[in-house]
Design goal:
Ribosomal L1 domain-containing protein 1; ubl conjugation; RNA binding; coiled coil; Ribosomal_uL1/biogenesis; 10 strands; 12 helices; about 15% strand
């Protein structure tokens, strides 16, 4: 793997691209924008050779401030003990004036953020009123649950500042006039704001050089990193200011081959280890079975005890089964009544016949 090296930017080429972009922005500027003193953002678009594995936020200090004085900055502070919200606001305003900080337009304590900016409409209004947000590093982790996702979607999440620092003015000036670049693991393109249209060409080129070198130094990637760098504004076409050599492709191919070889070797080792483990287990199981057989041959076999039924139980069972078989099926009631009636009739008829015989007179 090749180590990180500084990118060799052609200063003259960068300056030409900056001048061309400034000329384009002057032609597109209108009378309304000149009256309001509006300046457009100038950004760098980085395209990497491969998608980063880890998401990262890179802070880029710039030699020349890339924010105009007209932009408004909001600061979130913690709640001071034994003080109301108004008292804490006054306390931090006085602290910033004493330290020489003049870039912050409004201070919002944490308690007022929770109560006054709880509705969704109030949060959207707060997001639109300010261009940048700062927060005391002591309450930075508490803000996401109260601000909502729109601050992060618009890339206006508050940047942490140490308000207890002895060089507070320098730290706040670096954070405000510097820039950030978010490197995501979802794509190979990232953008960072580095200047505005009101700056001179030399100031913009110096900011570009500083931003490129810091990005290359702080990226968590190995091998050749940057493929192309473009310069653009909000309304212009992207102008290329750096393109990498084709030799980087060979370096990347070699690196990929090495990683593939390493992965294959690791997979082979795992397969070998698994087969060896299976063989060892088979050998141990076979040895245990052989040992058991030998022990069985030496020892006498113990006969199994089988329960035998007693003869009394057998006889009782046989008797009960025979009785069940000998039982006759009961005749229906209608048949019995008919038989009884027939028997009575025959008896009566026999009696009447005997009486008739007796009444016949004897012949002399």
């Amino acid at each position: 793997m090749a180590e990180k090296t500084e990118l060799a930017l052609d200063r003259s080429q960068v300056k030409k691209a900056v001048q061309a972009l400034q000329a384009f922005l002057k032609t597109k500027s209108t009378s309304a924008s000149l009256f309001l003193d509006e300046s457009q953002q100038i950004s760098l678009l980085f395209t990497f050779w491969k998608i980063p594995k880890q998401a990262q936020t890179i802070r880029i200090p710039l030699p020349h401030g890339q924010r105009s004085e007209a932009e408004e900055v909001c600061l979130f502070t913690r709640d001071e003990p034994n003080m109301t919200t108004d008292q804490t606001q006054r306390f931090y305003k006085k602290l910033l004036e004493e330290r020489g900080v003049k870039n912050i337009t409004e201070i919002i304590p944490y308690k007022t953020l929770k109560t006054e900016y709880k509705p969704f409409e109030a949060k959207r209004r707060l997001l639109g009123n300010f261009d940048m947000f700062l927060s005391d590093d002591r309450i930075r982790r508490l803000l996401p649950s109260h601000l909502g996702k729109h601050f992060y979607e618009r890339k206006k999440e508050p940047l942490s500042v140490n308000l207890q620092s002895k060089q507070l003015a320098r730290d706040i000036h670096r954070v405000i006039q510097g820039t950030n670049m978010k490197v995501t693991n979802k794509g190979c393109c990232c953008m960072a704001r580095i200047a505005h249209s009101g700056m001179t060409a030399d100031e913009v080129t110096e900011n570009i050089e500083a931003a490129v070198q810091t990005v290359v130094a702080k990226l968590r990637m190995k091998g050749p990193l940057v493929k192309v760098i473009h310069l653009k504004s909000q309304t212009s076409v992207a102008l290329p200011i750096y393109t990498s050599d084709l030799s980087d492709l060979t370096v990347l191919d070699e690196a990929q081959k090495k990683t593939l070889k390493a992965k294959r070797g690791a997979a082979k080792k795992q397969a070998k280890n698994s087969t060896e483990d299976v063989k060892e287990t088979d050998i141990t199981v076979e040895g245990k079975a052989k040992g058991k057989k030998k022990e069985g041959e030496e020892e006498e076999e113990i006969p199994q005890l089988v329960p035998i039924e007693t003869p009394s139980k057998k006889r009782k069972l046989e008797k009960s089964s025979k009785k069940k078989q000998l039982k006759k099926a009961p005749r229906p009631a209608a048949v019995k009544k008919g038989a009884k009636a027939q028997g009575k009739m025959t008896k009566k008829a026999g009696k009447s016949d005997s009486k008739v015989k007796r009444k016949v007179p004897k012949v002399k």
